[in-house]
Amino acid sequence: MPGAGRGERLGHFVKVLRRWRVERRLPPSHPPDPASGRRRWRRSPPASSASRQPQDSRRNGPGYAGSVGLRAVKAASKTELCASAAAAADNAVGLFDDAELLSGAGRYARAYSLAVLAVEEFGKAASLVALAAMPENLRAQAPVGRMLEWHQLKQVGGLLIAAVGFSAQDRAAARLAAMPVTQLEQILEETGAFAEDADRLKRRGLYMDLDREGRIRRPSEITEAEVARQLARARQVASTASLLREPATQAWLAHPPAELIELSRALVRAFAEAGHVRSPRAAAGVVLQAVCKLRQQLAASDTAARS
């Protein structure tokens, strides 16, 4: 409050503090000390589990928009994880539909951001499928945070699964293992390059920024051609995501094939070797390593079965 006196500033601070206490539902302060006239603020007592329940209900009720509950994911049953994967796929389709509507209305910047988010959300669905396929002891060791919150990994994974195809009748993990390494590397190189560009443009579609050269970058600078390319990728993803919502696919995921279980194991090992670097190149590397490990394991199993 420029130009205000000390008393006015103090009064304003008290009003803000009172409003904050009301919003946070903090206990009232003690009345003023008769001797000094000052208020004595008290610390609220520790809340019991019963008294905390209403607050948790408010956080998880309608309109809640929090981060992924990583502990809940690890503790979830296979059925719950399959249902979560279907919900993420359904949301990916909804994001794509909204992106198309915005693009048709000429709102290219927001359309681009939503189309990128549609790819990410399907990548999350793919990660949830991998978690559902894992045995419980392996899921307890899985890097759930990186699998569900690493944006570039979700973009790479979503585009790869969409390119390979996915359905209850199609053994996508086995086809990944049978794919020539050069073809897989080419796909991952393309998806990795997209992930790097898309993550940057996703933010450009939402926020004004000042670049290193001092130029103002506005969301309106995203072109119709850029949106069209991204919508084409998201359309392919949405088509595959629709299959994940089908009851036949859900029943198939409840009893995943051996190669999908083995791919989930290989994915955990690939994460452990990759460390904590988060970049499009690192995301593509994790996927490539997981598929190569799956290929080696399936070859070893085949050799053992023949001997």
General description of the model:
- The protein is mainly α and 307 residues long.
- It has one domain (73-306).
- It has helices spanning 6-24, 49-60, 70-75, 78-104, 108-133, 136-139, 144-149, 151-164, 172-178, 181-204, 224-244, 247-254, 258-274, 280-306, and strands spanning 209-210, 216-217.
- Strands 1-2 form a two-stranded antiparallel ribbon.
- Strand 1 (209-210) and strand 2 form a beta hairpin.
- Helix 8 packs across helix 14 and helix 10 runs antiparallel to helix 14 (280-306).
- Residues 24-30 and 39-65 have low confidence and may be disordered.
Distinctive features:
mainly alpha; 307 residues
| Intertermini distance | 83 Å
Shape: globular
Helix content: over 70%
Largest sheet: 2 strands, antiparallel
The SSE string, one letter per element, is: HHHHHHHHHHEEHHHH
Widest sheet: strand ordering? 1-2
Q: What portion of the residues fall into strands of 2 or more residues?
A: under 5%
Radius of gyration: 25 Å
Structural class: mainly alpha
Q: Mean of the pLDDT scores?
A: 76
Number of strands: 2
Low-confidence stretches: 24-30, 39-65
Count of folded domains: 1
Total number of helices: 14
Please provide a brief summary of the model.
The protein is mainly α and 307 residues long. 71% of the residues lie in helices and 1% in strands.
Can you lay out the helices and strands and say which pair or pack?
Blueprint: H1 6-24, H2 49-60, H3 70-75, H4 78-104, H5 108-133, H6 136-139, H7 144-149, H8 151-164, H9 172-178, H10 181-204, E1 209-210, E2 216-217, H11 224-244, H12 247-254, H13 258-274, H14 280-306
Antiparallel strand pairs: 1-2
Helix pairs in contact: 4-5, 4-11, 5-8, 5-10, 5-11, 8-10, 8-11, 8-14, 9-14, 10-14, 13-14
